[in-house]
2-C-methyl-D-erythritol 2,4-cyclodiphosphate synthase
Amino acid sequence: MKIRVGFGFDVHQLREGHPFILGGVLLEHHKGAFGHSDADVLAHAVCDALLGAANKRDIGHHFKNTDERWKGISSLILLKECAKMLHDEGYSINNVDAMLCIEAPKINPHVPAMKKHLALAMGISEDDISIKATTNETMGFIGREEGVVAYAVCLIQK
Ligand SMILES: Nc1ccn([C@@H]2O[C@H](COP(=O)(O)O)[C@@H](O)[C@H]2O)c(=O)n1
Ligand SMILES: C[C@@]1(CO)OP(=O)(O)OP(=O)(O)OC[C@H]1O
């Protein structure tokens, strides 16, 4: 059996009045993430973890941020595509563990819904994805709510 680990990181700006989609969930907040797609930083970090595990470059390599096809697209669709690339090579996704660094809003109440969306996109069980959150204790660009960061790791096997 071949087992590989993958790591992903992403960061997006937070801007006043933008929709805030995280893990496929639309959060009620005065600020939202800005990007070419729906700027779902959590889904993007998971995409990069999957792609990294399979040595398949990164999300921007497959979905260029200058391509009109991806403008405003749901990142769950991009995640589904990344999972498909792995499945097509015979890999299955063992588990994913993700960490959000975000000052506000509180993420914990939304974790079950986020797990459901991401698990469905990857074709895995909700039990095989973990989502956690921390503030940055008011420090730096995260603490000032200028941006949001996500990290993810995964194991894949074939
Ligand atoms: N946006 C966030 C940040 C944190 N949490 C939860 O609160 C706990 C304490 O966070 P600290 O940054 O003060 O250590 C953290 O462990 C999370 O459970 C959250 O839900 N949303
Ligand atoms: C997802 C893509 C493509 O729409 O755009 P963004 O939403 O800007 O996200 P980012 O994490 O900066 O990079 C990957 C992109 O190519």
In short: The beta strands are 3-16, 20-22, 25-27, 31-34, 92-101, 129-134, 147-157.
